[in-house]
Write a structure and sequence with these properties.
142 residues; mainly alpha; 3-stranded parallel β-sheet; 3 strands; elongated
């Protein structure tokens, strides 16, 4: 039995060493934080910038942040909406850009977003919708 364990360790150690570096990078990049923790830290310190490297949680992140901030003005849409900056407004604390958040990549998804009722219990007064012109082409086949 001891001989088997020795051979098993000789086999496992080189394979285990292959996972040390990726695990170290994963821990240093802090990809293991939950979105709730990220949003709470970002609200406490607005200078924190979030951008995932190995995961893609942008939609869920922006929806969670939108529900925590509860702004007066929200920008929705494709990448064109990311050009709106909070510095353009008199009260930048009540402004939020949710570009690429909430599944708002096309005009077809407008009904989806409205049916989710994201703004029924919020203080949102204005929604700026910024989509690409090609998003408005009607395609009856899907």
């Amino acid at each position: 039995m001891i001989r088997f364990v020795k051979k098993l360790m000789i086999f496992i150690i080189p394979i285990g060493l292959l996972f040390v570096f990726p695990a170290w990078v994963y821990i240093l990049s802090r990809e293991y934080y939950s979105l709730e923790d990220i949003v709470n830290k970002q609200i406490a310190n607005p200078k924190i910038i979030y951008g995932s490297a190995y995961n893609s949680f942008d939609e869920h992140y922006k929806q969670l942040l939108l529900s925590k901030i509860d702004p007066l003005i929200v920008v929705l849409g494709s990448s064109r909406s990311l050009g709106f900056k909070k510095d353009f407004f008199l009260n930048p604390d009540r402004f939020f850009v949710a570009g690429y958040g909430g599944n708002m990549h096309s005009a077809d998804n407008l009904n989806w977003f409205a049916s989710k009722g994201k703004f029924r219990d919020s203080k949102v007064k204005f929604i700026i919708l910024s989509l690409d012109p090609a998003e408005f082409i009607f395609n009856p086949l899907g």
